Amino acid sequence: MRAAVIVFPGSNCDRDMAVALKAAGADVSMVWHKDAALPEGIDLVAIPGGFSFGDYLRCGAIAAQSPICKAVVAHVERGGFALGVCNGFQVLTETGLLPGALMRNANLKFICKTVEMKVETADSAFTEGYTAGDVVTYPVAHHDGNYTADPDTLARLEGEARIAFRYINNPNGAVADIAGVLSENRRVLGLMPHPERAVDDGHGGTGGQALFRGLVGQFAEA
Ligand SMILES: NC(=O)CC[C@H](N)C(=O)O
Fold this sequence. Notes:
Strand order of the largest sheet: 2-1-3-4-11-10-9-6-7
Number of strands: 11
Structural class: alpha/beta
CATH class: Alpha Beta
Largest sheet: 9 strands, mixed
CATH topology: Rossmann fold
Order of helices and strands: EHEEHEHEEEEHEEEH
Distance between the termini: 10 Å
Number of domains: 1
Radius of gyration: 16 Å
Number of helices: 5
CATH superfamily: Class I glutamine amidotransferase (GATase) domain
Bound molecules: glutamine
Shape: globular
């Protein structure tokens, strides 16, 4: 698999994302936000966590207007895969590639801890390394992780089994305990917790490995 990790001013999980993808077998290019095109032959775009453009305006809002995001939208419209973690999830909602929005945490505080989530569906390239119902542990580190969407969108997400992960003990007030959602074609995943910070014993847990291995493994089989 060929993956591109997008780097914005203020990204801080870009290298962690690259390391996690490489460890799972992906060939990774780092792509600066000012580039107008992705490298040839990219299968997956990964938008990492961080504080792009200092979180000014709204988290992810300025990054979503970067030249590279036009190329990311075109990649997704062609059926390409995209993964957005934390600030990356915020960018994906701001581009309109995923529904809903991430608001300020209900307690108005930055939350930095490890959380448990339930895998709600294994029916996606991102979650096929798990079994639905599995409990996985990833770290969170955000102040705007409170996912919300209008009732019709929520009903659609539920009805189409597009809620990928739900918190077991909701840390941020997200509606319906939603930690991660899939696009309609199931090829775009956005989630607030960080799988790339849970891929090595040194991280204190390896619960994120199955996400990267499952995702990259599908391309090896193809
Ligand atoms: N770790 C992150 O990506 C944080 C995203 C964003 N800066 C927030 O705090 O909500």
